[in-house]
TrEMBL record:
GO terms for biological process: interstrand cross-link repair; nucleotide-excision repair. Residues 71-248 form the Helicase ATP-binding domain. It comes from Thermogladius calderae (strain DSM 22663 / VKM B-2946 / 1633). The keyword GTP-binding does not apply. InterPro entries: DEAD/DEAH_box_helicase_dom, Helicase_ATP-bd, Helicase_C-like, MZB, P-loop_NTPase. Pfam families: DEAD (PF00270), Helicase_C (PF00271), MZB (PF09369). This is DEAD/DEAH box helicase domain protein. One of its GO terms (molecular function) is ATP binding.
């Protein structure tokens, strides 16, 4: 039952807009405001007088209990992780003890290096820090790629007590910048804010950057981190910092209430209803962000939104930084009321008051849901959070069990420390820093990375030492200077003007920019002329008129090689393997799809498929075949099970829509892999929780009432063969027998596979 007035109005307009479609708000959840438990007053603390007066002037007369616990732990020298909800004062929890230390230990060198995941957030936080700084005694400054040359020169000669930067700058700076080396070598505190952001490949990069920082100095570094959403803060922080940490927990919920709504699309596409909802909110003067998990879907939502008469602008990765900053300023000033964004606006960049958040689909994990939801109503007002549920297996699951959506646990955050693709980047950087490194001093992953660097001609060994081939190594690091991409970056150029108009990383670039692909840039349609993988460049041509369709690639994925890392037999006697795998993607053509209802149109096939290979991590599964079924029957069942397992991983592992992929074989071999080159850690998590994923997969295929497959159960928008060779009924029959213990397999995954792989 809907009680909130705004929800009632929005629901009424949505139903009137499409009276026969069945689109409506189906569930309301009210989140009450929570006030953290109070702690001691500022007067009770042993603070320097200047700092005490500064805090009182800033409106802080008392610490919360969790802030005081962090205060005590940090000043007593413990590596500390602070976990508390949005708007509860995590920044003050680590900043106040650092400022006490700065007052007690004045130094001409930085006392703390504080890292934020983005440049924009660094500058927002500097403005926040300034109100706590005592003029003339404590200074702070941002040192990153956007800092003017004159400011950098001044900060090198007169370093601030609190230096704000980002991991990317430290990664590059340890090789190229004596100033960065000096900052991290002399600082006492190393702070990572928004720690939850660093899961997967980005977290693995951070782990290696931290390792390099520790190798660049002689110990004595104290680590501090904060996060609003971590279910395993101790384990996750220790996997990155490599030291014991203590955890301080504040209230897990936000400070400030919110009204949450689940919205069913009926028989229309999620993009149509997302855009319609955005236009309704904009016309009511509700400032909001629409979150999507795909760059091109952000463009699509903005285009459809404009057809409803609402101005929707796009904020996403792959756009030039100055374009993103323009969008942020327009939203902050109220010049625009609706922005379609990828996770680029997920963090706490100051965009002013925000009334609502619209999520075009349930986010990759409940962690991201909480983070995105926290953007709305952060300044003493309740926020509104709308989540679109469409024809999708997980959406349908939550439509059946709406209360479970809001009561679910935050999944564990993980990294994959043995990602050899990440390890080789940082080992090469370390070789350039040191000149040479003794082989016996390297941990096992770095030792394997040496062999890979030698094979690629980037390093060599002489005696017991490894050396970089400097010219080639520097060129390689220039190409891989970003820690944000999972693979090599492809630059996208306008064929007519030669202008650089965007970026895309491999292997996704191949799936977005094949010849004939429709590619949107700030809602303007282009057609791709193809990708030059060797030159890392793609060229697009502006279309003369708007289009009401988009394209999806038709492709296959095959496992060309694998190395077993771990094995086990599941509770249902199914052999499971966690492995390094070498995947080959072959894009064979594409299909044209209607933008408003996702119906498929004509297919186009290439004379010669486009190929790209890359390493990653995967779960390998070997299911037994059924004697009565032929090869086609097995292919239909196992392909459907593969799709449902990937869907289940979204709940079990917190995987995003594109974080994992899969391939199945008629022989009963299924491979679920990390989409990120080298691995993200999600496949490892799935390997450990596979039984739970099978149970959810069974629920997905057995609860749907379709004939034999539909978007609500086994159809996937990312299926490489356009959802062909699928059978929900066979998958349900098979998994029912499996869960009942009627199927047993004694072979090993991929040992006797046969048949064409189906992605």
């Amino acid at each position: 039952m809907i009680r909130d007035r705004l929800l009632l109005e929005v629901n009424s307009e949505l139903v009137q807009l499409y009276p026969r479609a069945g689109a409506s708000i189906i569930h309301e959840h009210v989140e009450e405001s929570v006030e953290p438990e109070p702690g001691p007053s500022v007067e009770e603390l042993n603070l320097p007088e200047d700092l005490r007066r500064t805090l009182l002037k800033a409106g802080i007369s008392r610490l919360y209990k969790f802030q005081y616990e962090a205060f005590e732990n940090i000043l007593n020298g413990f590596n500390t992780v602070i976990v508390a909800g949005t708007g509860t004062g995590k920044t003050e929890a680590f900043l106040i003890p650092i400022l006490v230390d700065v007052h007690r230990n004045p130094s001409p060198l930085p006392r703390a290096v504080v890292t934020y995941p983005t440049k924009a957030l660094s500058r927002d936080q500097l403005a926040r820090l300034h109100k706590y700084l005592v003029f003339g005694k404590v200074s702070a400054g941002v040192y990153d790629g956007d800092t003017p040359v004159e400011d950098r020169r001044r900060m090198r000669s007169q370093p601030p007590a609190v230096l704000i930067t980002n991991p990317d700058m430290i990664h590059v700076g340890l090789v190229r910048s004596p100033a960065i080396k000096m900052f991290v070598d002399r600082a006492k505190f190393f702070v990572v804010d928004e720690l939850h952001v660093y899961e997967g490949v980005l977290g693995t990069h951070l782990k290696y950057i931290v390792d390099r920082v520790k190798l660049a100095r002689e110990g004595g570094l104290q680590f501090i981190a904060s996060s609003g959403t971590l279910s395993n803060p101790k384990e996750f922080a220790e996997s990155i910092f490599g030291v014991d940490v203590v955890v301080v927990k504040g209230p897990s919920r936000r400070r400030g209430g919110a009204v949450h709504a689940l919205v069913s699309t009926g028989y229309l596409s999620r993009w149509t209803i997302t855009a319609a909802l955005s236009s309704i909110l904009a016309k009511k003067g509700v400032k909001h962000i629409v979150f999507v998990d795909s760059q091109q879907m952000a463009e699509l939502v903005a285009r459809i939104g404009r057809s409803f008469g609402a101005e929707v602008v796009v904020h996403r990765a792959g756009l030039p930084p100055e374009e993103r900053r323009r969008v942020e300023e327009k939203l902050k000033s109220g010049e625009v009321l609706a922005v379609a964004a990828t996770p680029t606006l997920e963090l706490g960049i100051d965009i002013g008051d925000l009334d609502a958040v619209v999520m075009s689909s349930p986010p990759p994990s409940f962690t991201k849901y909480v983070q995105r939801a926290g953007r709305a109503g952060r300044r003493g007002r309740p926020g509104y959070v709308f989540t679109i549920l469409a024809d999708d297996p997980i959406d349908s699951y939550y439509e059946r069990y709406p209360t479970q959506f809001f009561s679910q646990d935050i999944p564990q955050s993980v990294i994959e420390p043995s990602n050899i693709e990440v390890a080789k980047v940082h080992l090469l950087a370390h070789l350039l820093e040191k000149g040479r490194v003794h082989l016996d001093s390297l941990p096992p992953v770095w030792r394997r990375a040496v062999d890979l660097l030698i094979e690629q001609g980037l390093a060599y060994t002489r005696g017991y030492y490894a050396y970089p081939r400097r010219r080639l190594a520097i060129g390689f690091l220039e190409e891989y200077s970003s820690i944000r991409s999972g693979g090599p970056i492809v630059e996208v150029y306008d064929e007519a003007t030669g202008e650089l108009v965007g970026y895309r990383e491999l292997p996704q670039a191949l799936l977005d920019l094949y010849p004939g692909a429709v590619y949107f840039i700030q809602t303007k349609p282009y057609v791709s002329l193809g990708v030059d993988i060797e030159k890392r460049a793609a060229y697009v041509k502006r279309l003369d008129k708007d289009v009401d369709y988009y394209t999806k690639p038709l492709y296959t994925v095959d496992v060309v090689d694998y190395e077993v890392l771990d094995e086990r037999v599941s509770e249902r006697n199914i052999p499971l393997t966690y492995a390094n795998v070498e995947l080959e993607i072959a894009v064979e053509g594409y299909v044209v799809k209607n933008a408003f209802d996702d119906r498929s149109g004509e297919k186009y096939w290439f004379d010669t498929p486009l190929h790209y290979s890359y390493p990653t991590k995967a779960v390998l599964v070997k299911y037994p075949t059924i004697e009565e079924w032929d090869r086609l029957g097995h292919a239909e069942a196992f392909h459907a099970i593969e799709h449902s397992l990937i869907s289940a991983a979204r709940i079990v592992c917190g995987a995003g829509l594109t974080d994992m992929g899969g391939v199945s074989y008629p022989s009963g071999d299924i491979v679920i892999y990390d989409a990120a080159p080298g691995g993200s850690g999600l496949a490892r998590l799935l390997f450990e929780r596979f039984e739970k994923a099978e149970e959810i997969a069974h629920d997905i295929v057995s609860s749907c009432d379709c004939e034999d497959g539909c978007p609500r159960c086994i159809y996937s928008p990312f299926c490489g063969n356009n959802n062909q060779v699928l059978s929900r009924r066979k998958a349900a029959y098979y998994l029912t027998g499996l869960l009942a213990g009627k199927l047993v397999e004694h072979g090993k995954p991929l040992e006797a596979r046969y048949g064409k792989p189906i992605a």
